[in-house]
Structure formats: structure tokens, C-alpha cells
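Reopening: C-alpha cells for the adenosine-5'-diphosphate complex, inputs below.
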Amino acid sequence: MSRIIVMTSGKGGVGKTTCTANLGMALAKSGQRVAVIDADFGLRNLDLLLGLENRIVYTAIDVLAGECRLDQALVKDKRQPNLALLPAAQNRSKESIKPEQMQRLVKALTKVYNFILIDSPAGIEMGFRNAIAPAREAIIVTTPEISAVRDADRVIGLLEANDIKAVRLIINRLRPAMVEAGQMMSVKDVQGILSIPLLGVIPDDEQVIVSTNKGEPLILEEKLSLAGMAFANVTLRLQGEKVPLMDLSAPPEGFLTRLKRLFDP
Ligand code: ADP
Ligand code: MG
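Re-run output (same inputs, fresh job):
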């Protein structure tokens, strides 16, 4: 049976799309057949993060309108053939698609893909309802900020009301030094408020911005960055493996050797 997971948050800009792109690519790399769906109609950007923007011909809307077949709209990743993107239309509003239509699209995808990740838009309106309609699991993404955590809490309630029971948490953009200085909520603080199982913690890492701009998920890096390792761990936990949380305050492996090379070539 396919796993259908919505990536959601309530608040915008906390890293839903970043997490979808990285988990999608990492799952595909580990041998799973993965479809990622951009459910952010109107403000799509999952295609950019995956570097697939130039290869979009059709979108989910064209499939629903009967203007193309589903497999024609799917953009297959050349680097990782196990990964496919179902793009959203850029020029349509969130009202142009209905929850039942999303369910139909996802049902068709389950025939081929065993992981389906749905990148939800911000908010709790129509776009959010479309994104959660087909999902059986949810990953809540939040940053350790009170406004993001409060929105996440609200969304968790809505997911429960919609019968999505497997809800897990990613805390994104953690800055250990700020937590230590008492200037940022800790993992424990956030977990204490939301009380759902923790899937992982992603550090605030400038490599995320580099990877976004390149259209290359972190997992494709030759030498994994700290955030890249954190995403790799989340991917393992999602597949049922027990991986301890990383100590984010420690420099990434290889950091000292790189430093040494710089100063002592
Ligand atoms: P959302 O989909 O929730 O709106 P995005 O994934 O688009 O959020 O991320 C918003 C911005 O935050 C992007 O510019 C992204 O590069 C940046 N970002 C996300 N996660 C991290 C991180 N762990 N470290 C640094 N920057 C990040
Ligand atoms: Mg987004």
C-alpha cells in the first residue's frame, strides 16, 4: 500500500517545500518510487527546488481538464528516475481544484508510486483542504518560533478532525547557539506544546539556500552538509528505522579536515 503524506504547517515560509523536495529526493535515492505533488496552486515552487522548472509541459489542472494523461504531466527526474513531480498550474487560483479531484489524482498515482508527498500551501483555506484530502499521514513542519508553533497546533487539530491520525513533526531552522543562550525555543519546548512524535530536527544551514538556488536537493551533495544529514536521518525514520537525533551543535563530520585543508594545503 502506498504511503500518502501531506507536508503542512499553517504558517508560510517555514520550510514545507524545502522538506518535500529533500525528503522526496532522499526517499527516491533509497530506492522508493516517489511522486511529489505541488499542491500550492498559484504560488508553485517545488519545481524550482528540484531544478525541474524547465521541463514542465502540463500540470495537474490539465490532467483534470482531460487535456493530457497523468503520465504526460509527471516530470521524471533525470538524476533520480525513481522521482516524479506533478506540477501545479501557476496561473490558477486555489479554487480551481476540488478535494475530490485531488483524491482522484492521488489514487491514480498509487498504482505506480509507493510514496506520495503532497506539498501544501500556507493557510487553512481551500488549498490546504485540497492538500490534506487524499492524505493518510501528515508531517507538520514548524520553526522554533511561537507564531509558527501556534499555527502548527491549529493545523494538528484540523488534521485530527479530518481523520489523519499519523501526524509527525519536523522542527526546521533550529539554531543551537540561540537555544543555548535562551533566545530560541528548544526541541523540548516545541514538543511540549505540540505533543506529537518527532520525526527530526533540521538545523538552520546556509547550504539549504545554496541548494534551493541550484535546484539540487541537499541529499545530492557529494559531502553531506549538516542539514543534508538531518534530512537523510528523517528519511530513515520515516521508513521505520531508529536513528538517534544528531547533536546539531557539533560541527559536521569532515568539517575539521576541510578547515585543515584550507589553512594547511
Ligand atoms: P514554505 O514552503 O513553508 O513556504 P520554503 O521551503 O519555501 O517554505 O522555505 C522558505 C525559505 O526558508 C526559503 O528561502 C528556504 O531556502 C529557507 N529555508 C528553509 N529551511 C531552511 C534551513 N533549514 N536553513 C536555512 N534556510 C532554510
Ligand atoms: Mg512552499
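The CA atoms of residues 24 and 34 lie 6 Å apart. Strands lie at 3-8, 34-38, 75-76, 83-86, 115-119, 137-142, 166-174, 198-203. Marking as resolved unless the reporter disagrees.
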